Amino acid sequence: MHTDFPHRPTWAEIDLDALAFNMHSVRRFVGENIDCMAVVKADAYGHGAIECARRLEAEGTSIFAVATLEEGIELRDAGITNTILVLGGLWPGQTPLFLDHHLTPVLFTLEQAEEMNAAAAERGRQMNIHIKIDTGMGRVGFRWDGFAEVAERLSKLTSLNIDGMMSHFAVADDLAANDFTNTQLSRFDEAVKIAASLGTHPTYIDMANSPGAVAHSNARLGLVRLGGVLYGLGGDVLPAGIDVPKLKPVMSLRSRIAMIKTVSNGESIGYGRTFIAERDSVIATVPIGYHDGLSRALSNKGRFIINGKFAPVVGGVSMDWTTVDVTDIPKASVGDLVTIIGKEHECEIKAEDHAKLTDTISYEITCGIGPRVPRIYLGGKN
Ligand SMILES: *Cc1c(COP(=O)(O)O)cnc(C)c1O
Question: Would you call 379 exposed, middle or buried from its count of C-beta atoms within 10 A (0-12, 13-18, 19+)?
């Protein structure tokens, strides 16, 4: 990001103090005896993995997770020294890079384990790995029901040290589905016992994501894996009606009015003429569009904050521009601040609000903020 570059005024503010606040808040909530892994995959859910990981490491985070080898190397190159778990497995040709960068793979097939074992043996190294057990998520993992045989074979791979065992919940956010969550927990417990019977005692045994950690105290085990709650998301991912830690949104999305004009009653705005003015109207054009991560599904639906008032989106969200009705905000002028996500005066729009209007979850909103939107970091200690 070129902060000294006179760029288009559309940016995301990342409040690193809020990130640190959330981390400590959840830590206190789950209990100081529970370790907290910071999940910073997908560029920290769109917030910027390097800056977020640096701040979290400074605040005491000792274990991180990313999705891909590339994401892990990016963090190592940025000076993150603590454990980095790569959740996305191992792909052909990657073993030397895992070894070079001291990244810890999460493995879920015997082929991966054998390949990693051979590569570690060749260098005379003992390699820490975590293994994933599929207890009902049905995505990746050694299946719980065939694990005894797998564990036997894994125990023969002497250059691998199984430092972690993990599984992943499918419905931790839905308290009505607690039976399934508990079934997953007992399947996982069974797998951990099988490993123990073969002499494998991992440092880390973990199942809980954000909703698991917050809503299921019996699922915290020794370590919880936190993504969404660190970024202050969860209004739509944590179950309603339970005690939750206090969280602050970390990302705000802002822009400025590029142009203002008056259109007459009956004129249309935008592609497809989906908005027809029903009065003489003042329309502001804002330089943000769907490439920036503002969903096209917000056409004629979303709203922005301008001068402390809500301005409805009128017409279609296009690739680079969005139009809003500011007829009722008479002072609106070119250059005025526009808040797309965030707080301004008494008004607030959350990622969760965008998610609700576009039939998704808040995670997809922040992850989807496009690469041409510069991230501006607020808060100390970086
Ligand atoms: C993404 C991910 C998490 C984090 O989930 P949140 O709901 O964001 O806390 C935890 N564990 C695994 C395996 C994941 O892929």
Answer: middle
Cα dist from 332 to 121, 305, 320, whole Å: 67, 11, 21
Ligand 1 atom closest to 226 (CA) = 9
* pLDDT tens for each residue of 143-199: 999 999 999 999 999 999 999 999 999 999 999 999 999 999 999 999 999 999 999
Atom of ligand 1 nearest to the CA of 233: 8
How high is the mean pLDDT of the chain? 97
164 lines ligand 1 (CB under 6 A): no
Q: Among 225, 231, 236, 366, which residue has the most ligand 1 atoms within 8 Å of its CB, making it the best to mutate?
A: 225
The secondary structure of residue 239, as a DSSP letter, is P
- Looking at residue 234, what is its pLDDT? 87
Catalytic residue among 156, 246, 271, 301: 271
Distance between CA atoms of 208 and 239, rounded to whole angstroms?
A: 14
Q: What is the pLDDT of residue 4?
A: 72
Minimum-distance ligand 1 atom for the alpha carbon of 229 = 9
What's the chain's Rg over C-alpha atoms? Answer: 24
The stretch 220-229 carries a mean pLDDT of 97
pTM (two decimals): 0.96
Which element (helix H / strand E) includes 15? Answer: strand 11-15
Measure the CA–CA gap between 141 and 172, rounded to whole angstroms.
Answer: 18
Which one, of 330, 298, 328, 337, lies nearest residue 314 by Cα?
A: 298
pLDDT confidence tier of residue 382, bands split at 50, 70 and 90: very low
Give me the residue label for tokens 């125990």: 155
271 is an active site residue? yes
Contact 295, 312 (CB under 8 A): no
Residue 45 annotated to the active site = no
User: How far is ligand 1, taken at its centre, from the CA of residue 224, in Å?
Assistant: 9
Map residue 107 onto helix, strand or coil: strand
Please report the pLDDT score of residue 381 as a whole number.
52
Per-residue CA distances from 260 to 292, 306, 373 (Å)? 21, 13, 23
Alpha carbon distance 293, 341 (integer Å): 12
